[in-house]
Write a structure and sequence with these properties.
The chain is mainly alpha-helical and 325 residues long. The chain has one domain. It is built from 16 helices and no strands.
Length: 325
């Protein structure tokens, strides 16, 4: 059944592309769509490749037993630790999915995997620097973003760990790897391990590349059809402006190292809480990321992850706006 759905999805995608190329190739909107699609795809592609290679290196060089042995004994402690791992392993959301996939296969608990998935694209020094620069070297806003992102990543990770078992949340091919590096004896030399890493990295890259294409295609269409001015017109109401900027963050699919510059462009039109909502939710939940996550998580887990993340971001930003206002 799943194979048929994937086949139908591929055919529908190819039909949509054929229609655009033949019927609307001269329309201005088609040109806008093409530029947007290509920019999203090529912006994300190197980061996803980096993530796939990093995941392959984890597969080849990090024994499962060593990873599990170094995790805190209590599962909630591993969530707190994983959500802050981006400070030493700065990974963009475009690259995070293949890394999380490999870590989960190595035995990382579900809650810790979710914490790393949501936290690493925000809680890292590169994002802190870009946020500070975008807001005129305002380190306070950068620190607020990192703290809010970390807190939400921890809460969602803990909630997912309570709601789902690892088997119930993950697709069968993304579960605990029973083979892993067991094919590689401990005495295996560096060169064979590197070849093994490249092999697994290439497999992950090709497996998830299609989701990147689908995500960029959908995001390009949404960006072409939905005008940003629609969101700016809701600035009079903080709840509506927060919701509007959350929706915009999901649709635009921006890299976490660049989205602060877009958020800063709304300084004169929406409250700071709405700008912060844009910067926190986008790296955690956008169209491209959700589609890539379908290679790791089952549909109920993705629905719960999306609902918990968006709900906690909204509540956190309302409290943030009330406190700062």
């Amino acid at each position: 059944m799943a194979g048929k759905m994937f086949l139908l999805t591929h055919l529908a995608f190819l039909a949509a592309v054929a229609i655009l190329l033949t019927g609307y190739r001269h329309a201005p909107a088609a040109a806008t769509f093409g530029i947007t699609f290509v920019s999203i795809f090529f912006e994300a592609l190197p980061f996803m490749l980096l993530g796939a290679l990093l995941g392959g290196c984890i597969e080849a060089f990090v024994p499962r037993e060593a990873l599990v042995r170094r995790l805190p004994q209590k599962r909630w402690q591993s969530v707190f630790l994983a959500a802050a791992a981006g400070l030493v392993l700065p990974v963009c959301e475009c690259a995070i999915v293949p890394v999380v996939r490999r870590l989960l296969r190595k035995g990382l608990p579900l809650g810790a995997g979710v914490g790393f998935l949501l936290g690493a694209p925000i809680v890292n020094p590169l994002v802190a620097l870009s946020t500070a620069v975008a807001y005129g070297y305002n380190s306070t806003i950068a620190i607020h973003r990192l703290l809010l992102g970390y807190g939400i990543a921890v809460l969602v990770g803990l909630a997912m760990d309570r709601l789902f078992t690892k088997e119930a949340a993950l697709r069968p091919e993304a579960g605990v790897d029973t083979a892993g590096t067991h094919h590689l004896p401990p005495e295996t030399a560096f060169a064979p391990r590197l070849a093994w890493a490249l092999k697994h990295g290439a497999a992950d890259f090709l497996d998830m590349g299609r989701f990147l294409v689908f995500g960029a295609f959908i995001a390009g269409g949404l960006q072409t059809l939905v005008a940003r001015d629609v969101f700016a017109g809701l600035a009079g109401s903080q709840p509506l402006s927060v919701l509007a900027m959350m929706i915009l963050a999901v649709l635009l699919n921006l890299c976490s190292e660049a989205d602060a510059f877009v958020a800063a462009a709304f300084r004169t039109t929406v409250p700071m809480a709405a700008q912060m909502a844009f910067m926190v939710l986008g790296p955690m939940l956008d169209v491209k990321l959700v589609l890539m996550a379908t290679s790791v998580f089952r549909k109920p887990a993705i629905a719960a992850l999306a609902g918990l993340t968006s709900g906690m971001v909204f509540m956190a930003m309302m409290a943030y706006g009330w406190r700062s206002g």
